[in-house]
């Protein structure tokens, strides 16, 4: 809702929704996260095109946090989107990448690495409440029976070989002190071949935390300025954001 209100104030129509792995969908319907998020977004676009207030040429999609992977993934295959926003950009959510720098490669297969990965993850969980929450929440939202199962279920969550299929203008946001996905916005930006923008938020602006929590007025202002420009907003004509 932190963006929805700002969207309405700027004259946009706005729809928010939960998909597999999120909110009531995981808690009530027991549907876990899936990597092929276009299967979630395409029905949403289909629905929007039935609404008389929707301009089919100006539908934008924004994803926050893990949505910084999900939205670009959807945009790579759902080409009716006019713009995509990744806040903040996520190139890979593979659990096997945990604790490594973005340019490091994973050596060996999961079966050979299983025991070490389990121990490594447990050690990190003992040291950090953030890591413990991330692992336990991940097991819940992916319906994983173990850390190794979580590793296997997150392996497809990468934009490698996918990001270059995005055609619509894409905004990648980056928080200077993001403690979840440091370095990944730049990775995603570099992999894009569509019209693209990298928008950085800094500590000097008070906007350096994950998804710019604490500086949402600034974030919304810059976001919708970009979207106005990208979608060629005409005075008096509302746009549409999915």
From TrEMBL:
Protein name: Alpha/beta fold hydrolase
Transmembrane segments: none
Segments forming domain AB hydrolase-1: 6-190
Gene Ontology MF: a single term: hydrolase activity
Superkingdom, taxonomy of origin: Bacteria
Entry similarity comment: Belongs to the AB hydrolase superfamily. FUS2 hydrolase family.
Residues annotated as signal peptide: none
Species lineage: Bacteria, Bacillati, Bacillota, Bacilli, Bacillales
InterPro entries for the chain: AB_hydrolase_1, AB_hydrolase_fold, FrsA_esterase
Keyword rRNA-binding: no
Pfam families: Abhydrolase_6
Source species of the chain: Paenibacillus alba
């Amino acid at each position: 809702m932190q963006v929805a209100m700002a969207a309405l104030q700027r004259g946009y129509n706005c729809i928010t929704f939960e998909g597999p792995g999120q909110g009531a969908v995981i808690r009530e319907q027991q549907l876990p996260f899936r990597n092929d998020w276009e299967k979630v977004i395409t029905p949403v676009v289909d629905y929007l095109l039935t609404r008389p207030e929707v301009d089919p040429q100006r539908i934008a999609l924004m994803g926050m946090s893990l949505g910084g992977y999900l939205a670009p993934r959807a945009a790579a295959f759902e080409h009716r989107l006019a713009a995509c926003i990744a806040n903040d950009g996520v190139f890979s959510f593979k659990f096997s990448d945990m604790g490594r720098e973005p340019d490091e490669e994973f050596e060996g297969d999961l079966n050979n690495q299983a025991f070490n990965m389990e121990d490594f993850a447990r050690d990190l969980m003992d040291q950090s409440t953030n890591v413990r929450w991330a692992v336990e929440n991940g097991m819940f939202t992916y319906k994983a029976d173990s850390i190794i199962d979580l590793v296997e279920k997150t392996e497809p969550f990468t934009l490698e070989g996918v990001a270059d299929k995005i055609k619509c203008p894409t905004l990648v946001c980056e928080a200077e002190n993001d403690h979840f996905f440091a370095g990944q916005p730049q990775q995603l930006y570099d992999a894009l071949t569509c019209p693209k923008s990298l928008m950085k938020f800094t500590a000097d602006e008070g906007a350096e935390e994950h998804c710019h929590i604490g500086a949402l007025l600034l974030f919304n202002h810059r976001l919708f300025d970009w979207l106005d420009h990208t979608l060629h907003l005409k005075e008096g004509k509302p746009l549409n954001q999915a």
